[in-house]
Amino acid sequence: MSAHKHDHPHYHEPTQPAMPRTGMVLDLSRAALVVIDPQIDFLTPQGVAWPLVGECVTENGVVGKLELLFKAAKDAGIVVAISPHYYYPCDHEWEFGGGLEKLMHQIGMFDRASPLSLEDFEHSGADFLPQYKPYILDGKTIIASPHKVYGPETNDLALQLRKRGVSQVILAGMAANLCVESHLRELVEQGFEVAVVRDATAAPRAPEGDGYLAALINFRFIAGGVWTASEVIGMLKK
């Protein structure tokens, strides 16, 4: 086991939390599983982001837990949505951006040939993991337009969820302190009740800091629930 997680007290729930319990109860009639960026560049050793996130992805068992969540959500008949991340050639003409934006463009993360073409898409870093495709490409899953930086402000996720009568969101996917946290913040601001699956996400660990620890801290302050994958699967089976 990695020393990062198990030797750091802040990875574990606080023994005397200051925040009151929210009382969020999952209602399958109005809930959706939203998986962010379940893509090769994040979740496999072949992905360009693996050197930053691979340790945390492996430690949390993210790949397997996401598959279990997809299956449980489909079995429960709730809405499932994907909020993907794609960059097209025009996006590489941006004149400014933060450090991670610059890095993503430099390493070709989530690159696609065109918004109107799937040329060279299959098995590329922007593609979904093969084991997820039966759940994602079943004709029922919402595949939102791509978010462009971190949050869903730039895509149609909120619209798609509202059009399906969703008011509760279970968030999972990548990366915890970036797109997951940004989706959490925006969806909360949009009036959704949101829980995060804390062990079905991961984040970069870099000299700049431990992104997973940063995300956990903010999840506890912001989310309606901070649940484990096993807890969510149990709720979906009820």
From TrEMBL:
Keywords: Hydrolase. GO terms for molecular function: hydrolase activity. Residues 31-206 form the Isochorismatase-like domain. It comes from the Bacteria. Coiled coil: none annotated. InterPro entries: Isochorismatase-like_dom, Isochorismatase-like_hydrls, Isochorismatase-like_sf. This is Isochorismatase. It comes from Herbaspirillum robiniae.
